[in-house]
Amino acid sequence: MELREFDLETGQFVDDGFRVPASRAFAVWLDRDRLLIEHTVADAPRTATGWPARVSIWRRGTPLASATPVYDAHPTDALLILGAVGIGRERMGVITRAIDYSTLETMLVRADGAIEATTLPTQAKMMFPGPSTRRHLIAQLSEDVVIAGRRIPAETVVAYDTASSIPADRRLSVVYTPGEDEFLQSGLSGGIAGSANSVWMVVDRHGTKQVLEARFRNNRWRVNRQQSEAPGVSVTFASANASTEHLVIQRGGFLHPTRLDLVRRNASSEPLFAEAPAFDANAFTVELRTTSSADGTQIDYYLLRPKAPATPGATPTLMTGYGAFGVSFSPGYLDGWVGGRSLALWLERGGALAIPLIRGGGERGSAWHHAAMRERRQVSYDDFAAVAEALIAEGFTTREHLGVFGMSNGGLLAAVMGTQRPDLFGAVVSDVPLADMLRFPAMGMGAAWTNEYGDPSDAAMAEVLRRYSPYHNVTAGRDYPAFLITVATTDNRVGPGHARKLAARLIEAGARVYYFEDQEGGHGVSDPLSNPELMADRMTFLINTLMAPSAH
Hints:
This protein has eight helices and 34 strands. Helices cover about 15% and strands about 35% of the residues.
């Protein structure tokens, strides 16, 4: 990706402006003429995952090579995330050192380039970048911590005051702790944002979303709850920043087209965008169901289904999920999670969609995530399989009409389902997947994920990984579902090797496999907006495999 300076007022790239050749490059403004920047141009140092390992201050009109280094990552770090806090003369850079995806160290970069440590707990959830108010850095705890002798529970949102006038022992404060049966939507999913003096959060209570505003006034955080959303409607913060109290809120759901509203401090709102419906929502209903996993844990799942199925008991049904890194799934309107508008082709033909909220994700907080990490990873797959079993046992669909799809870790999930439980599925779409779990640290950014999956260099952990690794669990003579495996040659996050090896192993075993490798597109090769042709091909595969007369 090439980084270039763009003038929003003229709508033109800036002549002789900041420009970085194609590389992994990230930057934030410190002021009009200086950037805080990291990049992988030429021989610039890199982390173990191949991401930039050096942060510098780059002044306008000078060559990139002369930028002043201010911080170097440790060789074993996963990545460095850049951000900023404050406006005008109070503005500072922020560096979040991701030691791994669950351990974060946050520091400030003062105007003169000096690095200042913060007391934000390292046991925090990943956000890109972390939200901030005009003077506070915001974080959400992933584990219980003790601050000044006080136990602060996991899931709590905390703030760090960057004002130099505040004593060091008074800089950390609690913004909000979720109540019983409440779960905050993660910042990765757009559920936490900062405006000038407020922290905005989305809380989930029994599947219903509600927006909270915590406003900093008289050195205290005061929480105001807004009206709850309708069932099945998600809300996220599309845009917010510390220069204003305004923010853009996005709403949408399985049956509710996306809407964007500009919300002002006085609670007034102005519609900015309303998506046109892509299918007849009146023909469908959304249910939040529950089933029991192999160990007795109750697993919720969304089911978007026709009100009057054309073939009761054999409704063509797709399943998808993610279930890792604490990433939460929220209902959206034909969003990228489900393949964009290509899903409308499935629904118009009477298809259904099921999305299990499996362990490994963040839908039920950090404990839900931690329950499926490393040696406990199998429970995530057990949860997903339990929902498939329920759909079949309850007479909603059959194996011949049930398909699974997913991308990245979701591609791993789909591949595990197809190789571990081929008795449950008639079709599998595995997009940019991990597949060889004994070599993933040596491929793409895999070295950053050993905290999540486990380190295969450890013999005991290697045996755990081998038990579910799709590449290692393909055997000749099994009745595998049809597979479509997609990847991009330029995928530098997971790497194309996983998909290539999985496809080859399945073909050797006699499975019906379709393999597509695009030269461009990177890890987001299946983005519905940039590559609609691939999404159409994918949906054609699913329709032909699961809806064809031969599938009945």
